[in-house]
Design goal:
By secondary structure, this protein is mostly helical. The chain is built from 17 helices and nine strands. The strands form four sheets. A three-stranded antiparallel β-sheet has the order 5-8-9, with no helix packed on it. A two-stranded antiparallel sheet has the order 1-2. The protein is globular and about 75 Å long. The chain starts with 14 loop residues before the first helix and ends in a 14-residue tail after the last helix.
Length: about 500
C-alpha cells in the first residue's frame, strides 16, 4: 500500500485545520463574488491565481454557488447563504433543463439540492414557496438527466456523456444523485404514449453498467486488466448495444487510469450504496429487477389461475430479492476495488499523480509512491482534486462498511480518508495566499489538451486550483466538521429518515 494511513487520526484532531480552511474559504468566496463577471461564462480553473472560464460544457457553476452554501452550513454566516441562494435563482435555471450534459448531479444537487437540504435540516427558515421551487427544479433535473439514455443489448442502459450515445463516462456515477433525489421526491420521467419511466430503475442500471464496463476486476478482460483500475470512458456500438472498447478523454490512455475518474468512482459508488441501502426493500427490489417486474404485470393481465399466479409471483418475489442483493454486492465490489487501487497508487500522503500510467513517471527519482507527493517535480503533475474527491469517498465507504458490521475493513478506509484530508488541509495544498482565488492548490483539468497553466521555470502544471477541487475540499471538510459537532450525517438525499 502506497498511502501511509495514520490510524490514530480522528475527526476531532483535524478540527483546527478545518476551521482554518473555512476561514480562508470565506475570504476567497467573497473575493471571487466581487470580481467575477458572468459574461465570460462559468469559473472553471485558475491561471496565475485568478479564476478563468474554459471547458467543454458549463459543468462547474453549481460548484461556484454550492461552495457558498457549504460555507454557510459550516460557519453560519448569512452572507454566504445569500450568495448561494441569489446565484442559484439567477444563474442555475438553464442547468436544470440542459439536455446536452451528463452533469446534473454536479450543478443542481450542489445548489438546489443543498438549499433544500438546509431547509429540511432547519438551518434556514421553512418557506413553502421556496421549497416547492427547489423541489420542482430537482424533479426536472433528474428527469432531464435520465432522458440521456442509451439502451444496451441486454435491455438495460446508461446515461450517455456529452460525447454522444456511444459514450459511458465513469464520472457520471456521481451525477446519479440527480435521479436519486428526483425519485425521492416522487417524480418519474414521462415517455412516449405516457410511459412512466422509473428514475430509480435507470439509476440502478446505470450504476451496474458503470461497475461492469468502467471498472476492472483482474478477470482478464484485456491485457491491462488490473483489479480496481478504471477506464474514463466505455464505448458501445449504438446499433447493436454491444460494448466495444475502453477509451479515455482526460487520461493518458484507455489502458492507464486517470485518477480523477478513479476518484469519481470511489465517491459515486459509496454514495449510491448509502442511498440504495436506505430505500424500502420493496421499492429497491423492483428497481433492481426490471424484467421480473414486467413479468409480474403480464402475469396479472393474463389472469392465470390463482394457484399458478401465486406460485409465479412467489418465484418472482424471491428473484427480485436476490437481484437487489446482487446489485448492492456489485456496487460494493466496485467501491472496494477502486478504493484499494487508489490506496495502492497514490503517494504516501494520499495525493495521486494525474494518471497512473503517465509517460514520464519513470523519470521520477526512486519509488515516488513511497514518498510524500511533490507537486513541483519536473516530470508529471499531481492532482489534488482527485484526492479531495477520493478522500470523501473513502470516508463514506468506511462508514457504510461499519454500518453493515464489516468492522475489519471499515476503519481502514475511514482512516485513509482522514489521512488524505490532513494533507489537503495543510500546505503546500491549502492555499493560504489571500490574493490567490483558489482554495486547494495543484489541481489539474485536462493534461492531454494542454489546458493547464505552466508557470515560468516549471515543466508541469502546478500551483493552480479548480472549481471542483475547491468545492469537494469544502464538502469533505464539512462532512468531518458535522461529525465533530454531532450533527446529522451529511448526505445528498437527507439521510434514511427523510421522506
Amino acid at each position: 500500500m502506497a498511502l501511509k494511513i495514520d490510524s490514530s487520526l480522528t475527526p476531532q484532531k483535524l478540527l483546527s485545520k478545518i476551521y482554518r480552511l473555512f476561514e480562508l474559504s470565506g475570504e476567497k468566496i467573497l473575493r471571487l463574488e466581487k470580481s467575477w463577471r458572468a459574461e465570460p461564462g462559468t469559473p472553471v480553473f485558475t491561471v496565475k491565481g485568478k479564476y478563468t472560464s474554459r471547458g467543454w460544457t458549463e459543468w462547474t457553476q453549481g460548484f461556484q454557488y454550492g461552495s457558498a452554501l457549504l460555507q454557510f452550513d459550516a460557519m453560519g454566516d448569512d452572507r454566504f447563504l445569500e450568495i448561494g441562494r441569489r446565484g442559484t435563482i439567477s444563474r442555475m435555471a438553464s442547468h436544470v433543463s440542459h439536455i446536452g450534459v451528463h452533469d446534473h448531479g454536479f450543478n443542481n444537487i450542489s445548489t438546489y439540492g443543498n438549499l433544500l437540504r438546509l431547509m429540511r435540516e432547519g438551518k434556514i427558515p421553512q418557506n413553502e414557496r421556496e421549497q416547492d421551487f427547489y423541489e420542482l427544479a430537482l424533479k426536472v433535473s433528474g428527469a432531464v438527466q435520465a432522458a440521456r439514455w442509451t439502451k444496451l443489448a441486454d435491455g438495460t442502459g446508461f446515461i450517455h456523456s456529452f460525447n454522444g450515445p456511444h459514450s459511458l463516462f465513469v464520472d457520471t456515477i456521481r451525477s446519479l444523485r440527480s435521479l436519486a433525489v428526483a425519485h425521492q421526491l416522487g417524480h418519474v420521467l414521462m415517455g412516449e404514449q405516457d410511459e412512466k419511466i422509473s428514475l430509480l430503475r435507470r439509476l440502478a442500471e446505470h450504476a451496474l453498467n458503470t461497475a461492469r464496463y468502467n471498472v476492472y476486476y483482474g478477470e482478464g478482460r484485456d491485457a491491462y486488466d488490473l483489479p480496481g483500475r478504471t477506464a474514463h470512458e466505455a464505448v458501445f456500438n449504438t446499433a447493436s448495444g454491444v460494448f466495444r472498447c475502453p477509451n479515455s478523454q482526460q487520461g493518458f490512455s484507455p489502458f492507464t487510469t486517470w485518477t480523477r475518474g478513479l476518484a469519481w468512482a470511489i465517491l459515486g459508488f459509496a454514495e449510491q450504496l448509502e442511498f440504495l441501502s436506505c430505500l424500502p426493500r420493496s421499492i429497491f427490489e423492483e428497481a433492481a429487477a426490471p424484467g421480473l417486474v414486467r413479468s409480474k404485470v403480464e402475469n396479472r393481465e393474463l389472469k392465470r389461475p390463482a394457484w399458478l399466479k401465486h406460485k409465479v409471483e412467489g418465484f418472482i418475489a424471491q428473484q427480485m430479492k436476490q437481484n437487489s442483493e446482487l446489485t448492492l454486492d456489485a456496487l460494493l465490489r466496485a467501491a472496494i476495488s477502486t478504493a484499494d487501487f487508489y490506496l495502492a497508487n497514490s503517494c504516501a500522503d494520499g495525493i495521486p499523480m494525474w494518471d497512473t500510467g503517465a509517460p514520464n513517471l519513470h523519470r521520477l527519482p526512486g519509488n515516488y509512491l513511497s514518498k510524500p507527493s511533490n507537486p513541483f517535480n519536473q516530470f508529471e503533475p499531481v492532482d489534488s482534486s482527485a484526492a479531495a474527491i477520493a478522500a470523501q469517498g473513502l470516508c463514506r465507504l468506511g462508514r457504510y462498511l461499519d454500518a453493515t458490521r464489516n468492522t475489519q475493513h471499515g476503519p481502514r478506509y475511514r482512516e485513509a480518508g482522514l489521512t488524505i484530508a490532513r494533507t489537503l488541509l495543510s500546505e503546500p495544498y491549502l492555499s493560504t495566499n489571500t490574493k490567490h482565488q483558489g482554495l486547494i492548490l495543484h489541481s489539474v483539468y485536462h493534461c492531454p489538451n494542454g489546458w493547464d497553466y505552466i508557470a515560468p521555470g516549471q515543466k508541469v502544471p502546478n500551483g493552480e486550483s479548480s472549481m471542483w477541487g475547491d468545492y469537494h475540499a469544502r464538502e469533505l471538510a464539512l462532512l468531518i466538521l458535522r461529525e465533530t459537532r454531532g450533527e446529522n450525517y451529511l448526505t445528498f438525499f437527507g439521510g434514511c429518515d427523510t421522506k
